Every structure is written in structure tokens, then in C-alpha cells.
Amino acid sequence: MPTDLPNGPQSGASIAVRDLHVAYGGTRVLHGVNIDFTPGSFTALLGSSGCGKTTLLRALSGFVPVESGSIIVGGQDVAGLPPEKRGMAMVFQSYALWPHMTVLQNIGYGLKLRGKSKAEIAAKVSQMLSFLGLAGYEDRKVTALSGGQRQRVALGRALAIDPGILLLDEPLSNLDAKIRMVMRHEIRAIQQRLGLTAVHVTHDREEAMTMADRLVIMQAGRIAQIGTPEEVYDRPATAFVANFMGAENILPLRVARSETGATLTTGDATAQVATGAGAAQALPAGEAVAYFRDDVARLDASDAAAGEDLLVPGRIAARAYPGGVYRYRVEAAGRQITVDDADRHELGTTIGLRIPLQRLHIFPASEAGIAA
Amino acid sequence: MIRIASSARMVLAVSLLAAFAFVLIGPLLNLALWSVAERWYTPFKLPVTYGTRYWEQVFRPTGDAMASLGTSVWIAVLTVVFALALSIPAGYALARLKLPMRALFMLMFLLPQAFPSVAIYINVARIFYQIGINGTVFAVVLVHAAHGLVFSVWIAAAAFAAVDRDLELAARNMGASPLRTFFTVTLPLAAPGIIASGIFVFLESLDEFTGTFFVGVPQVTTLPLLLYNAAMGGNYQVASITALILLVPSVLFMLFIERFLRADVLAKVGA
Description:
The structure holds two protein chains of two kinds. By secondary structure, chain A is of the alpha+beta class. Chain A has ten helices and 20 strands. Helix content of chain A is 26%, strand content 35%. A six-stranded mixed β-sheet of chain A has the order 6-7-8-3-9-10, with helices on both faces. Chain A has a five-stranded antiparallel β-sheet with strand order 13-12-11-14-20. In chain A, strands 15-19-16-17-18 form a five-stranded antiparallel β-sheet, with no helix packed on it. Chain A is elongated and about 80 Å long. Chain B has two domains: 2-53, no CATH class; 63-267, MetI-like fold (Orthogonal Bundle), CATH 1.10.3720. Chain B has helices at residues 2-35, 53-59, 64-96, 102-114, 117-131, 137-161, 165-173, 178-206, 210-215, 223-232, 236-260, 263-267, and strands at residues 37-39, 49-50. Chain B is mainly α. The radius of gyration of chain B is 23 Å and the shape is globular. Chains A and B meet through β6 and α2 of A and α7 and α8 of B. Chain B: Keywords: Cell inner membrane, Cell membrane, Membrane, Transmembrane, Transmembrane helix, Transport.
């Protein structure tokens, strides 16, 4: 879609957030947040609703006052500055296009403020519109556009002022699934071409993983984990992150350390982790909880050899066919576990739930209690 | 059986509609009839002689009616300017800023309506006499504005509250100062509601009688006062024509409201 660049690659600005506290009407929403956004990076702020991700974005943009802490953009602390002095452009969830203006007036608004002439504005807007695949839409009313088109106009308005920083507040959540997929790639491609520093708020895990270089998982006004999509997905730092990233199956475990490694026990099943595996040292001793995804476990015969895996005996309680694989609900170790398996099994069958040890995310029971 | 029931319902519906139309249109018809009746006396059910003599009399450039129409419109325009100059900032503050005792402020504008107007205006007239502004257009404008402010402030507050905050934040984000944001985004979006409130104040001023009577007479004669004098003097023709003239702006206003004002603005009035 993007045909040519309205302006050459530019460098995004860096943002450093230091010990940021934000409160809304007496309720503390952010409790000391520290993050660095490097120039040209695409960061997704991810978390369930009420975790403070939108508040963090609005604090960056200057829409909510900061209680304490600093937001340093290119060496200057902007925490005390009003929104118009921060040089950040935001794309709103509601698009926030001005209904009394045309597409041209919407996209040209920021340029007009910067004292550009009518001809300059018209040229830049026309360039921006062809860049966004909306050539010739200048005189349309924004109220006459479809959701996807409004989204692009909103993006165009933000990009028209050549911002160093692009803030995206769940910009895709009002679009239907198909257009959302297209826009993910478009936004990512534009950010890459222009070299912008992008901060994207979303509650959609897949959206965050496909668009961003780096995820920031937030929980109750604090940062739970910062890392690349692979790091956060494969090596969650806390039980909350594991659960949030889709490891929704929970098995209670007991970990016994020994000279040779560690022994995991759940119900009637046990497994050995050798010291050499490296993972053994990281395991918590005593009561623990293991998290794993639906798609990492397999169904096997209850008397199969465990080998390197944890083989938990269980019974099939329910079956559904969402397409491609069967999805089972298995009762094992006193818990309800959801497992995907390619083969069809009858309800009530006793099976062995096979989980590769390295796919288990194990946390002390005391910590896991918070997330569950 | 069913047919009888349905035709009975039909008859009932038609007669109810007819009664409704009579109540609504009857007085207007009477006015229209009186305005073209040159001679009409008992026992005749309809005017004896029809003609436009009184229309000519009313619209004669030197006539009292045109002069008082001019006075009425001038006062109404000044009242609108005065009321909007107060209600735009007040409405914005009530809609957007965190005001302590917000409900009390809203109620304060309602206060002039809460007491019998004659009692209020007698006292207002007394005070205006003391400071020497009784019988001036300025005094009448003040009285009309006090009366109109409750509508204009409440409607303006509703109009500002209906403007999505994100639209203002988007303008700030693009680099606009708070003042610029107000004039390029907030005010244009609230404009239909504010214009409606202005028209409402205009109409209220145009047919306001009691206040004008107490603080304006005898120097200031507005159209309603002329109507009153004509009716008291038994000149039903001039009274009817004056009443019909007063009707025109109201009808135009209704058309405007229907055409331009969004339901979500109306829903926020007084909230």
C-alpha cells in the first residue's frame, strides 16, 4: 500500500521514563515506572484493562498530570510540559477525527498551526493521502469514511507533523478482524520506513507480538516484564506474565532438590530434572505451580513411558473441535487442564497427559497465588 | 365483529385527532380570522367585512407596530449578545472544569424562574428607579438576560459536555494551545447547541411581557406591550396581527431545532 515516502527516513526521538507516579483523583494508577524507549523502536504496552498501560501512554502525551518522576525526551524533561509542547503524535482508539472538518482540514491541522502556507499544506496532505492509499479523499467529510479509512486519516494526521514519537492507543480495536490484520502490517511498515519511535498500547497479545520489537507487560500499575516477544513468551518472568501470555493451564507441583538435580511431583506423576539441564538451579524448592499452554501438552496412553517428560494421569472430561485439532478438557492432578491433540479420543478415557519439562513455567506457590 | 371493533377504533382515532387539531389550530385560525376582519360583531359567527386595512395600518412605516417591532428585535439582539457572552464561558466551565458546588451554580441560574415573576420585577423596578436606569433599553435587556440565562447556560453546558474530550486532546496533541483548541474544535462542535440557546433567548426576549412592563414602561414599548395595549383598547385586529408576527420566529426556531440539534446534546441539558 505505501507507495512513496512523504518525507525521507528520519530518526525517532528517545524517551526515558524515570520513577513515574500517576494518580487519578486520589487513586494511584502508576507506581514508579521505569522504561527506556530507544529511537526507532516499536514498543507494545500490554496488559489487562486497568493495569495502567493507557495511563502510561496518556502521561507520556501529557493528557494526565504526572505526580512525580520524569519523562525525558531527547535530553529534556517534558513531564511538566503541556501536551502541545511534547512533539509526540497520538492515534486515538476513537480516532478522534474532527467531524466538522474535511479530511484535508484534519490532516492539515497540525501543519496550519506550524504556519505552513495553503499550497504547502495541500501538497503535504495529498502526498500523505497517496502514501496511505487514500489519494483524492481531501474533500471528503470524515464522517462519510469507513472505519479503516478513518484509521488511516488519523494516522495521516499524526504523521503529517513529522513527529519523532508516535503514540498508538489501541488504534486497531474498533476495526473488524480482516482490516485489523492489514493495518497491523501497514503501521509497522510505516514506522520502520520513517524510523519513528512508536509506543503502542493494546490488550491484544497477538497484535503486540506481531507488531512490536519489544513488549512491556504491565500489571496493577507496575511493569511485570520487559523483553522481546520471544523472551516474554518463552521465558515469562512471573506467574502473572506466564498466565497473561497464554499459559493458562495450572498444575500444582512439589519440587524436591537433590545432589543430582530436582524431582518434580504432581499427583501420582514425577519427573527428574538433571543438574546439567541448567533449569534445575532456577527451580523454586517446595510447593510450586507450573503454567503451560494448551498446545504444548499431548495426550498419550496412561501407561506410556514418561521419558524426559512429565506424564500426568488424567481422564477426558470434554471435547470440542475448533478446527485442525481436537481440544480436550482433562481432569488431572485435581485440576481442569485444556489440551489440544490431533487424535480423537472418547470421553471418560483414562489417558496420560504428556508435558515436555522445558515447556513448563514453574513459579513458587506463594507468588502464583497472586496471579490465579 | 372484528370489523365493527376496528371501525370503532378508527372513528375514535379520527375524532381524537380532530379534537387535537382543533385545540392546536383553533386559536390560530381565530387569530388569522381576526387579522382580516374589518368589521365583526354579534350576532354574526363570521366577520361581516373582510379586508387588509389593519395589516396596512400595522405595517405602515410610521405605525406604532413597526417601531415597537424594531425595539423588540433590538432588545432581543442585545439580550442574546449579553446572555451568550456570559453563558459560553459559564457553560464551558460547568461542563469541563472541576467546579466545587457545581450543582449550586446550575441552580443559581434557575433562581429567577423559581419565584413569582411579578414579585421579583416589582423589586427590580424599585432598584432600577433608585439607580436611575428604569425605562431604558439597557434595563429591559438586563431583565430579559436574567430570565434567559437559565436556558442559555444550561444548554451551553450541555453542548460543551457533548463534545468528546479526545477531540480536544487530539488538537492539543497536534500542537494547539488551549485557547486555539477552544476556538477551532470545542466551540465549532458546540455551536449548534449554542446557536439554539441563542435563538431560545431571542424568542424569550421577544415575547417577554411582565419584566418589560415593570422596568420599561412607558419609555420602552415592545411588541407584546403593544399587543396588550391593542387588546385592552378593544382593537382585536392589531392584537391578532401582532400575535401572528410574534409566532413567526417560534416556528422558525422549531424547524432549526428539529434540523440541527442532536439528541445527545438535548439529553445533557440540565445534567
